[in-house]
């Protein structure tokens, strides 16, 4: 087997990730390219992978019932959205009071 490149779709397990690998093949009857997705469980020893990361997998000996791959390297880290916390919002409001709407008292 050779190395494959895929996208991490789940990292909820300890030291394991699920990676979706897409492949294209030519369908002879339809004369079109068809995309198929395979999901592989892979070993991530340091829990470095997050959802959305692009990783390269290398084959290995069977590590468990479904794990036969190891994460060789993270090719591209995913951008993770971090919602603004209350402290950051309060400091932004104090530093720039012009952006706040005036409060009407009735």
UniProtKB/TrEMBL annotation:
<dbReference type="GO" id="GO:0019843">
    <property type="term" value="F:rRNA binding"/>
</dbReference>
<keyword id="KW-0689">Ribosomal protein</keyword>
<dbReference type="InterPro" id="IPR019984">
    <property type="entry name" value="Ribosomal_uS17_bact/chlr"/>
</dbReference>
<keyword id="KW-0687">Ribonucleoprotein</keyword>
<dbReference type="InterPro" id="IPR012340">
    <property type="entry name" value="NA-bd_OB-fold"/>
</dbReference>
<keyword id="KW-0694">RNA-binding</keyword>
<dbReference type="InterPro" id="IPR000266">
    <property type="entry name" value="Ribosomal_uS17"/>
</dbReference>
<protein>
    <recommendedName>
        <fullName>Small ribosomal subunit protein uS17c</fullName>
    </recommendedName>
</protein>
<dbReference type="GO" id="GO:0003735">
    <property type="term" value="F:structural constituent of ribosome"/>
</dbReference>
<dbReference type="Pfam" id="PF00366">
    <property type="entry name" value="Ribosomal_S17"/>
</dbReference>
<feature type="compositionally biased region" description="Low complexity">
    <location>
        <begin position="87"/>
        <end position="97"/>
    </location>
</feature>
<feature type="region of interest" description="Disordered">
    <location>
        <begin position="87"/>
        <end position="106"/>
    </location>
</feature>
<comment type="function">
    <text>One of the primary rRNA binding proteins, it binds specifically to the 5'-end of 16S ribosomal RNA.</text>
</comment>
<comment type="similarity">
    <text>Belongs to the universal ribosomal protein uS17 family.</text>
</comment>
<dbReference type="GO" id="GO:0006412">
    <property type="term" value="P:translation"/>
</dbReference>
<dbReference type="GO" id="GO:1990904">
    <property type="term" value="C:ribonucleoprotein complex"/>
</dbReference>
<keyword id="KW-0699">rRNA-binding</keyword>
<dbReference type="GO" id="GO:0005840">
    <property type="term" value="C:ribosome"/>
</dbReference>
């Amino acid at each position: 087997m050779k190395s494959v490149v895929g996208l991490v779709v789940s990292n909820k397990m300890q030291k394991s990730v699920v990676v979706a690998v897409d492949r294209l093949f030519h369908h002879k009857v339809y004369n079109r390219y068809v995309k198929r997705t395979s999901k592989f469980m892979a070993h991530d020893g340091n829990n470095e992978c997050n959802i959305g990361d692009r990783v390269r997998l290398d084959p290995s000996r069977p590590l468990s019932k479904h794990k036969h791959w190891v994460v060789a390297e993270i090719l591209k880290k995913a951008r993770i959205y971090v919602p603004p916390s209350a402290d950051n919002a309060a400091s932004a409001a104090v530093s720039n009071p012009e952006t706040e709407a005036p409060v009407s008292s009735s």
